[in-house]
């Protein structure tokens, strides 16, 4: 089987997509007229294959029944890394036993609704903690900058198998949306349970010791049960537990800043030169510049989305973004962050990056409103160092109040962001506008800690049998690469069990 590439107008591409088997699609906005690059599968005679031809899209996974399996593995955390590790273990006949501090997804939804209405934060059930991890109520962007870590396509296939739309198999910048993700996560859970895996919700692991000494095998006591540590990067208490129990940890570079929100129609005009996005959907952007030797860049851009309260601790204010599958809110938001290097934070405590994040989150809380409103400033006012008398409409449900982020953000972040926004405006004139607002703070864009592991065995360098993986281990960032890292940990366990 072969394929052929077409460059089409958005409407032509839309029509072709309904008819033919598409294997790749991307929007090209480099010229004034939008173009869509479509690659279509063809037969040996070069004829396009129909969309509904009886040719499998991919090889479906085969999950084994592990009710009576002699091998098992413990997984701490049911985010993308933990869930994809569990599914991979099932494919290899190993029983996954998952411990998740948060609630199952439908119960978690209720806590998130309370949070959005300013009716309280449940520190164990929120945008970060609970079934599906931090990726469940997100934009569900499934692309990753890294192409190195293995079979990304398999991650897409598994998402599709559990109910993601066909586009995840071929769209260059595929996304699922927070209205569809909970259903997909629920089907993954049902599959794990039906095949004999175990999931223990509302069960926070507060010590590794009992797990790392848990025997398994035919006569039990034969070998120890491997432990996959897939805790994400927001479980600061769990990092502190790991440090206390002697697990090797090191500081790693991360990024912090604010979330910027523009009217989506403006972003469509700047990126697509048009407000008509009927066949391509709302535009996104990806911006990067260097200021005083540090990267300043957009992060986790959510077209047609919402800014959400993504903290997990009381007395702190953390924001992030999400969107539904149609990405149809009138707002375009994105993290705008500055690279932070370990040497920027004095001391030698491997967890000092966490304390740095927490301090900024506390400051944001103190500069926010009494009803947990987040601090905000009009974008141009921020860059030009002026107070905002009022703020534009904003998607952040708990609300925002005017604040001088230009004055209280640490200078090495605030000044670089100001210059970064000027640079982005040079590239896209009009980006720097008072119709946009920045909201503080975007502090959890990546892990500030690495749990170093042996590159061959994937086990912790200090703690045999412990497999740190996913975003919290500092080896992945985002849904796809975390899921893939979970798959790799499980494959390693399967390989060693042979
Ligand atoms: C609002 C929001 C939007 C996002 N949007 C996107 C996006 O569009 N695209 C993208 O690629 N990425 C996005 N991200 C980032 C993405 O969600 C993470 O990179 C990804 O979920 C990391 O996967 P993980 O499995 O490593 O960790 P997590 O998803 O963080 O999962 C870790 C799990 O471990 C559990 N846990 C922690 N400690 C313990 C313990 N001691 N005991 C038991 N359980 C524990 C937590 O409750 C959590 O469920 C978003 C994040 C947020 C918060």
CATH superfamily grouping of the largest domain:
FAD/NAD(P)-binding domain
The CATH class designation of the largest domain is: Alpha Beta
Rg measurement, Å? 23 Å
CATH topology name of the largest domain, in short, is FAD/NAD(P)-binding domain
What overall form do the CA principal axes indicate? globular
- Give the N-terminus to C-terminus distance in angstroms: 35 Å
Q: What structural class do the secondary elements suggest?
A: alpha/beta
Indicate the multimeric state.
single chain
**Strand arrangement, largest sheet?**
12-13-16-11-19-17-18
Taking pLDDT < 50 over at least 5 consecutive residues as the criterion, the unreliable ranges are none
The count of DSSP E runs of length 2 or more, i.e. the number of strands, is 21
Largest sheet: 7 strands, mixed
CATH architecture of the largest domain: 3-Layer(bba) Sandwich
Number of helices: 13
| Chemical compounds bound to the protein | flavin-adenine dinucleotide
Strand content: 15-25%
User: For the residues shown, what is the average pLDDT?
Assistant: 94
Assign a percent range to the helix content.
25-40%
How many structural domains does the protein architecture include? 3
């Amino acid at each position: 089987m072969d394929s052929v590439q077409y460059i089409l107008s958005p409407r032509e591409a839309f029509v072709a997509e309904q008819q033919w088997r598409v294997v790749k699609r991307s929007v090209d906005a480099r010229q004034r007229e939008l173009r869509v690059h479509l690659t279509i599968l063809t037969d040996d005679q070069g004829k396009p294959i129909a969309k509904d031809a009886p040719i499998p899209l991919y090889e479906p996974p085969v999950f084994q029944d592990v009710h009576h399996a002699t091998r098992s593995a413990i997984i701490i955390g049911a985010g993308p890394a933990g869930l994809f590790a569990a599914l991979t273990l099932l494919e290899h006949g190993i029983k996954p036993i998952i411990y998740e501090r948060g609630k199952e997804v439908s119960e978690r939804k209720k806590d998130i609704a309370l949070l959005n209405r300013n009716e309280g934060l449940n520190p164990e059930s929120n945008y970060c903690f609970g079934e599906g991890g931090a990726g469940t109520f997100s934009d569900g962007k499934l692309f990753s900058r890294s192409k190195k870590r293995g079979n990304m396509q398999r991650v897409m296939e598994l998402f599709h198998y559990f109910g993601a739309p066909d586009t995840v198999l071929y769209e260059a910048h595929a996304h699922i949306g927070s209205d569809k993700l909970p259903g997909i996560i629920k089907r993954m859970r049902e599959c794990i349970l039906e095949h004999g895996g175990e999931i223990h919700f509302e069960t926070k692991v507060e010590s590794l010791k009992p797990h790392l000494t848990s025997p398994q095998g035919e006569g039990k006591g034969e070998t120890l049960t491997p432990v996959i540590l897939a805790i994400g990067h927001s479980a600061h208490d769990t990092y502190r537990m790991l440090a206390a129990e002697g697990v090797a940890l090191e500081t790693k570079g991360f990024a912090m800043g604010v979330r910027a929100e523009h009217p989506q129609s403006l972003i469509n005009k700047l990126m697509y030169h048009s407000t008509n996005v009927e066949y391509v959907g709302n535009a996104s952007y990806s911006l990067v510049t260097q200021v005083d030797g540090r990267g300043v860049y957009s992060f986790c851009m959510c077209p047609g989305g919402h800014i959400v309260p993504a903290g997990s601790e009381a007395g702190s204010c953390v924001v992030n973004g999400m969107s539904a599958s149609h990405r149809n809110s009138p707002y375009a938001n994105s993290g705008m962050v500055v690279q932070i290097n370990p040497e920027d934070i004095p001391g030698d405590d491997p967890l000092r990056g966490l304390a740095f994040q927490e301090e900024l989150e506390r400051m944001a809380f103190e500069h926010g409103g009494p009803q947990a409103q987040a601090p905000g400033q009009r974008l141009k006012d921020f860059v030009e160092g002026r107070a905002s008398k009022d703020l534009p409409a904003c998607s952040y449900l708990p609300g925002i109040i005017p604040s001088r982020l230009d004055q209280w953000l640490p200078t090495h972040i605030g000044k670089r962001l100001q210059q970064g926004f000027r640079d982005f405006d040079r590239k896209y004139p009009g980006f720097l506008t008072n119709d946009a607002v920045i909201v503080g703070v975007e502090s959890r864009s990546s892990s500030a800690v690495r749990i170093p592991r042996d590159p061959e065995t994937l086990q912790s360098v200090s703690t045999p049998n412990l497999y740190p993986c996913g975003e919290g281990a500092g080896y992945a960032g985002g849904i796809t690469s975390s899921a893939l890292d979970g798959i790799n940990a499980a494959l390693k366990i399967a390989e060693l069990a042979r």
